[in-house]
Amino acid sequence: MERIRQERALDRSRPRRDVLRLAGLVLPALTAPPLLAGCGADPASGAGNVLRVSQPGDPVTMDPQKQGDMVSMNALINMFDTLTTRGRDNKLHPRLALSWTARDERTWRFTLRPGVRFHNGEVCDAAAVKFSIERLLDPRTKSPIVELRYVKSVSVVDRLTVDVHTTLHDPILPDKLSLFGGVVVPPRYLAEAGDQGFASHPVGTGPFTFVRWQRDHELRMRAYPDHWAGRPHVDELVFSPAPNASSSLAALQSGGVDLVAGLTPDAAQQLQGYTGVTLDGFSGIRTSYLSLNTLDKGPLSDRRVRQALNHAVDVPLLIKAVLGGKAREVPAMIPRGAFGFDPSVKPFTRSVRTARELLAAAGYPDGFSTTLTASNIDSNVAEALSGLLAKAGVRARVDLLDPGTYSSRLTSANHAALGPMYLAASTIWTLDGESMIQSNVRSDRRQSRWHSKEADRLVDIEELSVDPAERTKAFSDLQRLMQREAPFVFLYQLDNIYARNRSPRWKPGPAGVLAMASAEVSR
């Protein structure tokens, strides 16, 4: 039976390979899922009203203010509440804050939900909100969360009202408090337990309470009956890591998990067709791109070369052949569904001939050799990109890194740590284009590899302007500027894809955050 299933998996890959072969691409052979390899969950723990979820990795820490990655937040958001929240309708909704308003250009006032307590009984009030934001901003916390960069201080107005003061007007501050920047932590418990004790046994106000965490195995949570929104439908929630399609399939088939999240389209294709496995797809906003090092000497410092790369990479073909159609082309970094997307900005035309002409004009008639760095999770996409670039004469050797090494280099202060060209993606969880631009474009930002005074000026407008129309224009001008200068190769926004067995019922929002309070299971 297992051999038959492997053959079916190989058959499914043929159309995708055929498209690539016709395009002259080089793509490594797909890996058929080795069945029933080890997975992270314990099947014996699965009886009853327990929802088991897996994603590609394990959280970095249980301290929500000391991590900045979606894998960690996907788990932590179930134990902690934020001030605001993004609904499935893409709109901002109340959470711990019932309302908010801009008192003046540098002050946002938040009115809090009454009667909320942390899991240890501690009151969640304005003092807790002030403590949480100030802890996040304290350099001693060493938080990687950057969204609150303009927050200067927080003042308590009364028990359920706080004012957040900023150095500059921050028009989307309430959006930034809907996830990473908006988590509220318990001041009294942190004073008693210390940072280490808090991370060992986290206490929040969220719909689930912490039970235990066995790193790289499982995080177990229990329904919090006194949550302000009501008790979750499931008794227990278990997160476990499944780093690839093979382990995801094994976990689903063994009953170790009910829902697999974070699947890349090519990984999902490997799960398609197996008995008891259903794939669900939803429009997503996670956006992929190639970052080009324009700062150091070499071909990429010439915009004609960078434009050539954009003409050479046939994104629609890439989406069809490698991603199974589970993505949408992005014209210039900002995805559809996010504030700032301009439908009048069109993607590059795909033309190898134009690419070769631009390379020749830049002094590279025979192309050039370079390196394309990627996480090994994205190996198929990286190899396909290399194949597309090769058609224009750009010989890009693919350098694959394990996710941990890739992430540490990405967030390092060395802008060349990932080489001249690297494949990256960002989840725009605020649904505002600023989230995509903030770390990559302005010349003083962590991942910026393009210095442009005009881009800096436009970033300042879209980040700080009070007028939404002014912000919209700045975003449009910025996207047109990025198309002219091409500091990135613009790729696609991915669908959110989930594999599940017959038990769970749950629907995500556009950012794909794994907030599971509304989920149900049936056995």
Automatic annotation (TrEMBL):
It comes from the Bacteria. The keyword Transport applies. InterPro entries: Peptide/Ni-bd (IPR030678), SBP_5 (IPR039424), SBP_5_dom (IPR000914). Residues 1-37 form the signal peptide. SUPFAM superfamilies: Periplasmic binding protein-like II. The keyword Signal applies. Keywords: Signal, Transport. Residues 91-443 form the Solute-binding protein family domain. Belongs to the bacterial solute-binding protein 5 family. PANTHER family: OLIGOPEPTIDE-BINDING PROTEIN APPA, PERIPLASMIC BINDING COMPONENT OF ABC TRANSPORTER. This is ABC transporter substrate-binding protein. It comes from Streptomyces kaempferi.
